[in-house]
Amino acid sequence: MTHENPLAYALGLEGIALMRAFTGTGELPGDPERAGHGPAFVAARVAEIRRLLDDASLAGAAVDVARVDTVEGYRIWSSTYDGPNTAFDYDEPVLAGISAALPPDSVVLDAACGTGRLAALAAGSGHRVVGVDSSPDMLAMARERVPEGDFRRGDLHALPVDDASADLVTCSLALTHVPELGPVLAEFGRVLRPGGLLFVADIHPEQVARGVIPSVRRADGSPARLASYVHRTGDYVRAALAAGLSVHRCDEPAPRPGPEAEDDGAAREPGPGPWEVWPWSLSDLAPEAADTAWAGMPAMVLWQFVRQAI
Predict the structure, then answer these.
(1) 165 phi, psi to nearest 5 deg
(2) What does the alpha-carbon distance between residue 243 and residue 246 come to, in Å, rounded to a whole number?
(3) 145 in helix, strand or coil?
(4) Taking the mean position of all CA atoms in its chain, how far away is CA 99?
(5) What is the dihedral of CA 158, 163, 169, 171, to 10 degrees?
(6) Is the Cβ–Cβ distance between 203 and 173 less than 8 Å?
């Protein structure tokens, strides 16, 4: 259980923004309009903090949120998981390029395959696909989506797959839900053939640390988030090396700009917005501070590892 207080989140954004102004790290490279984090910016932050503290709409708005495992969480989320989800814009183009470069009829293991979106991409490139997931609800959708695929229920810590049987292992948007990377990457190393490639994509750890964690409503309407963990860059590298994997590539793409919203002059509705859109709506409580706090923050981390020769 976590206690999510929107006032605390907004004040946290203000604190990060003030720290970045203090250190001069709050500007985006090449954006001179964002360079004015001097006395006026600091004064505005202090004034906004006072306003937030006096905002009656934030008093008593805190929510106690349960933590659920992937089986329960994805059972709830499975019907709406496939869209819209901006994270798909990052991993799918990379996997498309990797799949196109593989020899025809390669074996691709989609670990934590979910609804089979990456499995479908690999199958469309002419490869044999094996998908593994712990959620029976997600697997049912994957089997319908990729009827030629071989989908198996299993856990990332004990994949129901033979040793050295896969040319490519993919795992997307899943490793933030495991407490330790080492055992899972060891399994990926076990099932990969020497020279095989592992592609991992996930929400960037800095995003997870700031509350970008999947939210669901349980059957009784109570709020819950999928259990999630912050894995730093070094955590991935240490776990990979111990599993006999070498780093081939690492990318940390920034969020892609969306369409500019038109300012119609209307006042923003008071309050933190519905819980389902936290933390994004919470950033609207202090937009200038949020812009500075999030400046330059990567959206995802995309890894490519190679199985070393035995």
Answers:
(1) -110, -5
(2) 9
(3) helix
(4) 22
(5) 10
(6) yes
Inter-residue contact 12 to 36 (CB < 8 Å) = no
What phi and psi values does residue 220 have, to the nearest 5 degrees? Answer: -85, 5
Mean pLDDT over the full length of the chain: 90
DSSP secondary structure letters along 256-272: PP-PPPP---PPPPSS-
- For 260, the token pair is 């500019």
| Residue 205 to residue 210: CA distance in whole angstroms | 9
Which residue's structure tokens are 């795992």? 171
Is the pLDDT at 103 greater than 60? The verdict is: yes
- Could you tell me whether strands 63-68 and 192-203 are parallel, antiparallel, or unpaired per DSSP bridges? unpaired
Cβ count within 10 A of residue 104: 8
Structure tokens at 41: 């910016």
What is d(CA 277, CA 275) in angstroms, rounded to the nearest whole number?
5
How far apart CA 25 and CA 157 sit, in angstroms, is 39
Q: Grade residue 259 by pLDDT with cuts at 50, 70 and 90.
A: very low
Integer distance in angstroms from the first to the last C-alpha of the chain? 44
Estimate the share of the chain in helix, then strand, then coil, as percent rounded to the nearest 5.
40, 20, 40
Work out the pLDDT band at 261, boundaries 50, 70, 90. Answer: very low
Q: Which two tokens stand for residue 123?
A: 């199958």
Residue 250's closest CA among 234, 265, 266?
Answer: 234
Give me Rg for the CA atoms of the chain: 22
Q: Which residues pair with 71 in a beta bridge?
A: none
What residue type is 120 in one-letter code? Answer: A
Reduced to 3 states (helix: H, G, I; strand: E, B; else coil), residue 119 is: helix
Which residue has 């019907």 as its token pair? 79
**β-pairing verdict for 300-307 and 245-251:** antiparallel
Helices 287-294/6-23 angle, 10° precision: 60
The most distant pair of C-alpha atoms in the chain lies apart, rounded to whole Å, by 64
User: C-alpha distances in angstroms, 185 versus 75, 133, 169, 262?
Assistant: 25, 16, 11, 45
